[in-house]
């Protein structure tokens, strides 16, 4: 996706054939709309700089990829921390509940239920992290292909 960036420049009254090398790495003559000449003052000329536009596009793609990766990493980190806190709190609360209920219910059943809940939550956390990592990799590959 190569595009040209056009710069609008005021005519300073330079003679025809003036070099645009100060503006573009590849010196190209100014392009005038409607066939007007360089000698006409107060008109606008358009200078094409394809080499600079390619570099700008590459820099934009790199910045976009870096921003996307940083945002996804931060979101994944926050989700993992929240899920770990939820699992730890749930396990502590359930264990305290088990200690209270031990006198009323068969202890083995309650402990098994608590452990099953903890295992299910941990499996869900791992699946979410794997899905997020796969999505990040796909996004980076798609964005870097442009």
TrEMBL record:
Keywords: Membrane, Transmembrane, Transmembrane helix. The chain crosses the membrane at residues 60-90, 97-114, 120-143. This is ABC transmembrane type-1 domain-containing protein.
């Amino acid at each position: 996706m190569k595009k040209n960036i056009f710069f609008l420049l005021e005519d300073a009254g330079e003679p025809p054939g003036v070099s645009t090398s100060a503006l573009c790495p590849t010196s190209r003559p100014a392009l005038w709309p409607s066939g007007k000449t360089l000698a006409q003052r107060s008109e606008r000329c358009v200078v094409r700089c394809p080499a600079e536009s390619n570099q700008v596009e590459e820099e934009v793609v790199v910045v976009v990829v870096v921003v996307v990766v940083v945002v996804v990493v931060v979101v994944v980190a926050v989700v993992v921390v929240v899920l770990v806190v939820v699992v730890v709190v749930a396990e502590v609360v359930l264990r305290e509940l088990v200690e209270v209920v031990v006198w009323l219910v068969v202890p083995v059943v309650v402990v098994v239920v608590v452990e099953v809940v903890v295992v299910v939550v941990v499996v869900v956390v791992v699946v979410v992290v794997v899905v997020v990592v796969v999505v990040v990799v796909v996004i980076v590959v798609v964005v870097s292909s442009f």
